[in-house]
Design goal:
CATH architecture of the domain at 145-279 and 286-326: 3-Layer(aba) Sandwich
Radius of gyration: 40 Å
Strand content: 5-15%
Biased composition (Gly residues): 37-98
Order of helices and strands: HHEEEEHEHEHEHEHH
Region (Disordered): 1-106, 305-331
InterPro entries: Cell_Envelope_Assoc, DUF218
Domain DUF218: 156-276
Protein name: Vancomycin permeability regulator SanA
Distance between the termini: 117 Å
CATH class of the domain at 145-279 and 286-326: Alpha Beta
Structural class: alpha/beta
CATH superfamily of the domain at 145-279 and 286-326: HUPs
Oligomer: single chain
Shape: elongated
C-alpha cells in the first residue's frame, strides 16, 4: 500500500523486493504519498539506503543487503543512502557499511586470502607430521650405521636380509648384500652369516639361493645358517633373536632400508650395527619412492609400539651357537 507521510521529519519506506510500497521520507512539511514501488526499492543488492531528507530509512534500506550498492529511489523524498548496516549474506560475501564492494564475493572460503593462508599452515603442519617417523629413524640409527665394510666393528653374525629373486638368482640388490657379507666373513669381521628370507612356497626359496651364493664364494657351508621365515624386516630381526639366539649382529641391506633395519633389530634385542650395501645403480629420488619411504618409516615406528608376533616363530634353534663354537674351535 502507498505510504502516507505526516508533517515534519518522518521515516519513509524504501520499496523492497518484499513487495512493500515505496513512500518518500524527506524534508519537513507535508509530503504526498508516493506511488507503489516508486520509492526505488533497494534491491537485494543494496548495502543500505541513504535518505537525502531527514527521514530514517526502513526495511531493506536499513538492514542492508547482499552484494551491491544502494538503490536509487525516484519517489518523493527517497534517495541514495550511506546508512544502514551491511548485514546479510548472499553468495558468500558480506557487504561493508560504506557501500564498498564485498571482499571475494561469490568465492569459496579456500579461495580467499585468509583461506589460502590457513591451507598453507595446514600443509606445513601435515608435512612435518609425516616426516617425523623418518627423522626419528635417522636419529636412532645414526650411531650404528656404516657405509663401508672396513668401518664395521667385529661381531658374531652378519644378518643378510632377503631382497627378491630373479629367475632363481639373487636380484641385483640382494647380490650386493651377499657380496658385503662375503667380504666381512673373509676379513674376519664376522664368524657366521645368517641369511633370512622368504620360503613361503616350494618354488620360491630365497634363503637357499643366498646360501648357494655364499658357499660358491668361499664361505664354509657350516658357517651359513638359513632362516626360511624372514617375511619382513621385523620378523627377520625377531627370529634372529628369539629363534637363532643372536645377541649381536651386523645387518646388511641398502641405504634406503638400513635405518629401519638397524632400529628394528635393536628393538628386537640384538646389539646391532648396520652396513649399507652398495646400490646397484644410483637411485633417482621421485615422489613415489619418497612416499613409500614415509609409509615404511611410519610402519616401523608403529611396529616398535605394537611389537607383533612373527607369523611363524617356531622353536629355538642352535644352528648359530653351534656354528660360533665350531668357528672358535677352528673346526
Amino acid at each position: 500500500m502507498p505510504g502516507v507521510i505526516g508533517v515534519g521529519p518522518a521515516p519513509g519506506h524504501i520499496g523492497g523486493d518484499d513487495g512493500r510500497d515505496g513512500g518518500g521520507g524527506g524534508a519537513s512539511g507535508t509530503t504526498l504519498p508516493g506511488p507503489p514501488g516508486a520509492g526505488g526499492g533497494a534491491e537485494r543488492a543494496a548495502w543500505g539506503g541513504e535518505g537525502l531528507g531527514p527521514g530514517v530509512t526502513h526495511g531493506d534500506g536499513s538492514t542492508g543487503h547482499r552484494t551491491g550498492g544502494g538503490g536509487d529511489g525516484d519517489g518523493s523524498g527517497a534517495g541514495r543512502g550511506t546508512g544502514g548496516s551491511g548485514g546479510g549474506s548472499f553468495g558468500g560475501g558480506q557487504g561493508p557499511r560504506d557501500g564498498g564492494p564485498a571482499e571475494d564475493a561469490g568465492t569459496h572460503w579456500w579461495q580467499r586470502r585468509a583461506g589460502k593462508r590457513t591451507l598453507l599452515q595446514l600443509g606445513v603442519a601435515l608435512t612435518s607430521l609425516l616426516m617425523l617417523p623418518s627423522a626419528w629413524l635417522r636419529v636412532e640409527a645414526a650411531p650404528y650405521l656404516h657405509e663401508h665394510p672396513s668401518q664395521v666393528a667385529p661381531a658374531d653374525v652378519a644378518l643378510v636380509l632377503g631382497a627378491g629373486l630373479v629367475e632363481g638368482r639373487p636380484s641385483t640388490y640382494l647380490m650386493q648384500r651377499l657380496r658385503e657379507a662375503t667380504e666381512l666373513y673373509h676379513a674376519g669381521t664376522v664368524q657366521v652369516v645368517l641369511v633370512s628370507g622368504d620360503n613361503s612356497s616350494p618354488d620360491y626359496n630365497e634363503p637357499a639361493v643366498m646360501y648357494d651364493y655364499l658357499v660358491e664364494h668361499g664361505v664354509p657351508a657350516d658357517r651359513v645358517v638359513q632362516d626360511f621365515a624372514g617375511f619382513n624386516t621385523w620378523e627377520s630381526c625377531t627370529r634372529a633373536s628369539r629363534v637363532f639366539q643372536v645377541d649381536e649382529a651386523v645387518v646388511i641391506t641398502q641405504r634406503f632400508h638400513i635405518e629401519r633395519a638397524i632400529t628394528l633389530c635393536r628393538e628386537a634385542g640384538i646389539e646391532t650395527q648396520g652396513l649399507a650395501a652398495r646400490e646397484p645403480e644410483t637411485p633417482r629420488p621421485d615422489i613415489s619412492s619418497e612416499l613409500r619411504e614415509i609409509a615404511a618409516a611410519t610402519s616401523a615406528l608403529i611396529t616398535t609400539w605394537t611389537r607383533p608376533e612373527p607369523e611363524h616363530l617356531g622353536p629355538v634353534e642352535d644352528a648359530v651357537p653351534d656354528a660360533l663354537e665350531a668357528e672358535a674351535a677352528g673346526d
